[in-house]
Q: What sequence folds into this?
């Protein structure tokens, strides 16, 4: 055991700044590990299965965005005839509408026909969090995927990502929970009648259109804010996800009830600390028997990066879930749920083409302002 530990911890010493530069250069090398089917950046490995799922959902998001852009542009520039297909999947970017729709479904007993896909996708992501921890963040979310690559860019530029002081890190992490608390309070304080009225309001009917136009017609302030967030994500790994995303905070609270965790075999562990260093949530994996934190995104990078077989595994205490099985489970659950929604009529919006043309031509009128103003 001691020989194994010394071999793993052995690092060629480098004199002064030259040694630091060499270590950072090694850390910045991005390469493919064919043996482990993983992308390797320094000591960190990310499963190829996870990368494939992330890339797949990101490409789907791009396609949906292009389709929705064509739909909205046609609605703005034509006066008659059928519009291009409106992709319901774009409603996955309306998490607040999804939460409101789920609560309204409980109140009314029927799913709203304005943004039904938003509710279905919200429930799918909650289900995945209950089953496979915060897998939405670690395996599906395109924003999380972009954030990871911005962090890798930071490693390539500086040889590492930077970390905020511990006291500031704790304070900043509370922001996403405060944002989540505000949204939950605002939604649950509404009466059933008020909630349903909001869902049926002109504002909610075009909230997806307004979301698209925000990015298509973004102003200088929006560009500056997004630019700052991207820069901070280059410097600090997962800045948006770690400190500001209320949706990830909500998924984390649901994931706390998940039966799967990262488990550590103390007898096999050599205390090398690699798992701690590669964990995007900065969790103390090497000092715990299991990781049940709401910050864990179920990425399994700690398991993929561990140099000792059987020291770490993701799953239940007695059953291991390999990355390939997680990828299959995520894909099957997602596809099955969306197909079931299509078959049962809980997927397509009931907003007609003429109605959407009318809404879009009146976007600037007071009726389409936020009802809470």
A:
């Amino acid at each position: 055991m001691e020989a194994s530990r010394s071999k793993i911890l052995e690092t060629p010493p480098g004199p002064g700044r030259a040694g630091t530069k060499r270590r950072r250069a090694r850390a910045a090398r991005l390469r493919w590990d064919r043996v482990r089917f993983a992308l390797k950046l320094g000591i960190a490995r990310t499963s190829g299965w996870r990368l494939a799922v992330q890339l797949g959902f990101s490409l789907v998001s791009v396609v949906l965005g292009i389709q929705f852009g064509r739909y909205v542009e046609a609605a703005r520039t034509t006066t008659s005839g059928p519009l291009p297909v409106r992709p319901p999947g774009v409603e996955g970017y309306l998490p607040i509408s999804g939460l409101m729709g789920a609560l309204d479904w409980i109140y009314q007993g029927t799913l709203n026909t304005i943004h039904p896909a938003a509710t279905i996708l919200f429930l799918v992501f909650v289900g995945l969090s209950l089953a496979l921890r915060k897998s939405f963040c670690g395996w599906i979310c395109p924003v999380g995927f972009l954030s990871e690559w911005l962090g890798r860019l930071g490693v390539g530029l500086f040889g590492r990502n930077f970390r905020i002081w511990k006291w500031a890190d704790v304070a900043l992490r509370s922001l996403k929970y405060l944002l989540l608390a505000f949204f939950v309070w605002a939604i649950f304080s509404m009466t059933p009648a008020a909630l349903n009225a909001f869902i049926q309001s002109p504002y909610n009917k075009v909230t997806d259109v307004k979301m698209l136009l925000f990015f298509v017609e973004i102003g200088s302030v929006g560009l500056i804010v997004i630019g700052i967030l991207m820069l901070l994500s280059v410097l600090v790994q997962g800045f948006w996800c770690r400190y500001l995303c209320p949706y990830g905070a909500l998924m984390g609270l649901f994931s706390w009830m998940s039966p799967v965790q990262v488990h550590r075999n103390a007898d096999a562990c050599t205390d090398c600390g690699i798992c701690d260093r590669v964990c995007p949530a900065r969790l103390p994996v090497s000092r715990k028997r299991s990781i049940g934190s709401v910050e864990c995104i179920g990425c399994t990078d700690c398991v993929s990066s561990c140099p000792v077989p059987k020291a770490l595994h993701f799953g239940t205490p007695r059953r291991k879930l390999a990355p390939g099985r997680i990828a299959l489970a995520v894909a099957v659950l997602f596809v099955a749920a969306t197909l079931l929604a299509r078959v049962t009529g809980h997927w397509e919006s009931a907003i007609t083409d003429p109605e959407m043309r009318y809404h879009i031509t009146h976007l600037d009128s007071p009726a389409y302002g936020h009802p809470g103003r």
Q: What stands out?
A: Residues 1-15 have pLDDT under 50 and may be disordered. The beta strands are 30-33, 38-41, 44-47, 261-264, 290-291, 312-315. The first helix runs from residue 2 to 9. The two ends are 65 Å apart (CA to CA).
